[in-house]
Amino acid sequence: MAKKLDKILVIDVESTCWQGPPPEGQVSEIIEIGICVFDLKERQRESREGILVKPTQSEVSPFCTELTTITPELIDAEGVDLKEACRILRKKYESQQRVWGSWGDYDRRQFERNCKNRGIGYPFGTNHLNVKTLFAIKNCLERELGMDGAMELMQWELEGTHHRGVDDAWNIARLMSTLI
């Protein structure tokens, strides 16, 4: 399938999480997919969206809500199943034809695990950019930084709420703009 090289999809996922290990019978699942479309010609962020996803093998814990601000009630009211979220990525964002990036490799691996566990087709192509590693290389850092540390290094304020996928994707795309 031909690649479309006019835009990069910047993806950040939030997943169910706990203070310690998962409770028995629960696994970490995607609960938000943050998407920022980065226009390569204009070298700027074009749009953003957050897709809330209903977990099927876990619950949103109080710890998770404190970290992300995502509540079980919000997921119940606005969430879609992962299959529908992947369909949106493929149809609306043409995710299988576009290069996509995330801060580190967690988001890619989490998508692979969650899709495999549910028997859902992986929504992305093979071209993934690890923006975290590229940022460290470009800035001659001895080690990779968290997204908030990279924003601090650039002397930029975080836009939105940290650990909300939609806002983190927006901030990651801004950091990525320094690499292109």
From TrEMBL:
Signal peptide: none annotated. The keyword Hydrolase applies. GO terms for molecular function: 3'-5'-RNA exonuclease activity; nucleic acid binding. Residues 9-175 form the Exonuclease domain. Pfam families: RNase_T. Keywords: Exonuclease, Hydrolase, Nuclease. InterPro entries: 3-5_Exoribonuclease (IPR051274), ERI-1_3'hExo-like (IPR047201), Ribonucl_H (IPR013520), RNaseH-like_sf (IPR012337), RNaseH_sf (IPR036397). One of its GO terms (biological process) is DNA metabolic process. This is Exonuclease. It comes from Microscilla marina ATCC 23134. The lineage of its organism: Bacteria, Pseudomonadati, Bacteroidota, Cytophagia, Cytophagales.
